[in-house]
Design brief:
about 675 residues; alpha+beta; Serine Threonine Protein Phosphatase 5, Tetratricopeptide repeat; Alpha-Beta Plaits; 8-stranded mixed beta sheet; two-stranded antiparallel sheet
């Protein structure tokens, strides 16, 4: 039997560590800082009590600070999460959210929504988890919180991984990875690549898992991030273990353990002790298995990691079962099952029931063995809802009734056959009349069917036109047609295209002071105008991310005027905003960056299509935008050389660009 090893799953959690400026004699400030100190040393119950005292102290003030109260409520939720009291965690997050909504602190609201999603994920309620994560995404996109958006997409990917929907998990994790690439977040990229590897491990696509872990490892080595390097080594060990390359797996586990011990990261060291112990258990070396698993057990117990502790205890049950010490095996399985029930980890409980059945069978206690096997099957079958069971029952009843009706009908037919000769003439006359009636009815049915078919074809044609229009809005026309005709579209390399990025200046500050409905209406007006502008210049809008707008010219159809068209589009965008600002109380300003080069373009996704671009040209265009000035268009030297005779430019001093070195840039005048 293959023994369970512990994966290093990076699940991103918004732990609130904000600090406020308190007066020297401020009682609530004293309580807040004291509670933070207790939280940092994992004294969660004591921290909860002090956070509550901080709230009471705020309410005693003439004007309580609602942000501090909301922060305390959120931190109480975090503490309850780490004590496995998930219902209370949700309760306190929701209290914090009420204050966030009243004060308009939507950033803090998004963090609370994310954490509620994590609680539901932990409880195994995946639909509820995704519901809250999707709400978080809506806020992150409006606020342009790229890093937070990437974290939430990562979390959704891991929920789908836990639910076995691996294709959707990869879809969300790759979206997270693309955002981190655009942000230049190498550490975040390594984390997401690691999580993609975990999905491929669960999917049993081990070659892809190894590639993802190795990419993550390379990034972490460049960053000299030893803790993360150890986690990647552990996961490479797991993959080799699954591939039954046991010596390689053990070598990876020991390398990871040495790093964690050096860093004094006892939680991660415990995971390695567990995995090495499971390795020796698989080999049948019980003495070595007990030595390493005992170390893991002690650390998990000290840290209060209940799920991991339940896993280790069940392994002790396996060890003593294999050595014939049935009393000890029973003792450890009891301990493991008690914990798994308490924290509602049904899969662990189910697996332990099967272990109990095996144990009691070996002990000759067949009655107990049968009882636990019944518990195992009952828990296994609990994924079926009562409705499904009712449907199955109804189907069986319907099937049995149909069989009886058929039998009765057969008896009646036999009776009719016996009387057929005496009624031949009567039947003949009736048949003749019935045939005429049948022909009339048949003609009516045919006429009705023809009319209905004409009507249905008209509806189908209308719906097809709607779907075609929607597809054309999502994808470029050529790509959409290829997708309709062939059912797929292959990525292509396009030479000589021009890409632009626009980004709204000071968007985060502006959005924090605006009603969400007004903010959405303003963004909709701006991006709709931008869409119309780029379309009028034969360009394609690729996507919007929060307050960022990306467009391209020169694909999927070649256009010799690609650079000129993009510049004319961005000039009109700035002119539109200047005119809008004269007529509105809200003043919107943008930065624009443009670069020309080669890109790879293709459709990403299976159920939700996204047409996206990849390559160094995209990153360079983004860098042009980052180094632009307010309401100015910054172009690269490559683009400048293509259109220098058609526009007036202002040459800039060379700029040191992250990841590129010094680059020449030009402002369009």
């Amino acid at each position: 039997m293959r023994k369970t090893l512990v994966l290093n799953v990076t699940f991103l959690f918004f732990a609130f560590t904000c600090h406020f400026s308190f007066g020297q004699d401020d009682q609530s400030g004293f309580y807040y800082n004291y509670a933070d100190s207790l939280y940092s040393i994992r004294e969660y119950h004591d921290a909860i009590d002090i956070y509550k005292k901080c709230v009471d102290a705020e309410y005693e003030k003439p004007e309580p600070n609602t942000e501090i109260i909301s922060e305390c409520y959120s931190n109480i939720g975090v503490c309850y999460y780490f004590t496995n009291d998930y219902i209370k965690a949700i309760e306190w997050y929701e209290k914090a959210m009420k204050y966030d909504q009243e004060s308009g602190n939507i950033e803090h609201l998004a963090n609370n929504l994310n954490n509620i999603g994590l609680v539901y994920k932990t409880l195994g309620q995946h639909n509820k988890a995704i519901e809250y994560y999707e709400k978080t995404i809506q806020i992150d996109e409006v606020l342009g919180r790229g890093k937070n958006l990437a974290k939430t997409l990562n979390n959704i990917g891991q929920v789908y991984r836990a639910g076995g929907e691996y294709d959707k998990a990869i879809e969300y994790l790759e979206r997270s990875l693309r955002i981190k690439q655009n942000l230049g977040d190498s550490s975040g990229m390594a984390t997401t690549l690691n999580n993609i590897g975990l999905v491929y491990n669960a999917w049993k696509k081990y070659d892809k898992a190894i590639m993802s872990f190795e990419e993550a490892l390379n990034l972490d080595q460049l960053l000299n991030n030893e803790g993360e390097i150890a986690i990647r080594l552990n996961n490479l060990g797991l993959t080799n273990y699954y591939l039954e390359q046991y010596d390689e797996a053990l070598a990876f586990f020991h390398k990871a353990l040495n790093i964690h011990n050096k860093l004094k990261d006892i939680g991660q060291s415990a995971i390695q002790y567990n995995n090495i112990g499971a390795f020796y258990l698989h080999r049948g070396d019980t003495e070595q298995a007990i030595e390493f698993l005992q170390k893991a057990r002690q650390i998990f117990q000290d840290l209060g990691k209940q799920s991991e502790l339940a896993t280790v205890l069940s392994k002790f049950g396996d060890i003593y079962l294999s050595t014939g010490d049935y009393n000890k095996s029973e003792k450890y399985l009891m301990m493991s099952t008690e914990i798994s029930k308490k924290i509602n980890e049904r899969n662990k409980t189910k697996t332990n029931y099967l272990r109990f059945s095996d144990l009691y069978s070996r002990m000759g206690n067949y009655f107990q063995s049968l009882e636990y096997y019944k518990k195992y099957t009952a828990l296994k079958d609990s994924i079926f809802t009562e409705k499904i069971h009712q449907d199955i029952t109804k189907f069986e009843i319907k099937y049995e009734t149909a069989k009886k009706d058929s039998y009765i009908k057969l008896l009646k037919n036999n009776e009719e056959i016996r009387n057929l000769k005496s009624k031949k003439e009567k039947i003949y006359r009736l048949s003749l009349i019935g045939g005429v009636i049948l022909l009339i009815l048949l003609a009516g049915v045919i006429l009705y069917s023809l009319r209905q078919k004409i009507k249905d074809n008209k509806i189908i044609s209308q719906e097809k036109a709607k779907s075609d229009k929607l597809l054309m809005n999502i994808l470029p026309a050529g790509v959409a047609n290829e997708l309709k005709e062939q059912g797929k579209t292959e990525p292509r390399l396009f030479n000589n295209v021009t890409v632009c990025f626009t980004d709204i200046v000071d968007f985060t500050e502006m959005s924090a002071n605006m009603e969400p409905s007004l903010l959405i209406a303003e963004l909709n007006e701006i991006f709709t105008a931008f869409d119309n502008i780029v379309e009028s210049h034969h360009c394609e809008r690729i996507k919007t991310i929060g307050d960022s707008f990306m467009a391209v010219c020169g694909l999927p159809d070649e256009d010799p005027l690609h650079a000129e068209n993009i510049i004319r589009s961005t000039v009109e965008m700035i002119q539109f905003l200047e005119k809008k600002n004269l007529e509105s109380k809200i003043e919107w300003k943008i930065r624009v960056g443009i670069h020309t080069g080669d890109v790879i373009a293709g459709v990403v996704g299976i159920k939700k299509y996204i047409y996206d671009l990849f390559g160094d040209t995209i990153n360079t265009a983004s860098r042009m935008e980052c180094n632009a000035e307010t309401m100015r268009i910054n172009v690269s030297e490559t683009t400048y050389n293509l259109v220098k005779d058609k526009f007036r430019f202002e040459e800039r001093e060379e700029v040191d660009v992250k990841g590129k070195g010094k680059m020449k840039m030009f402002f369009v005048q």
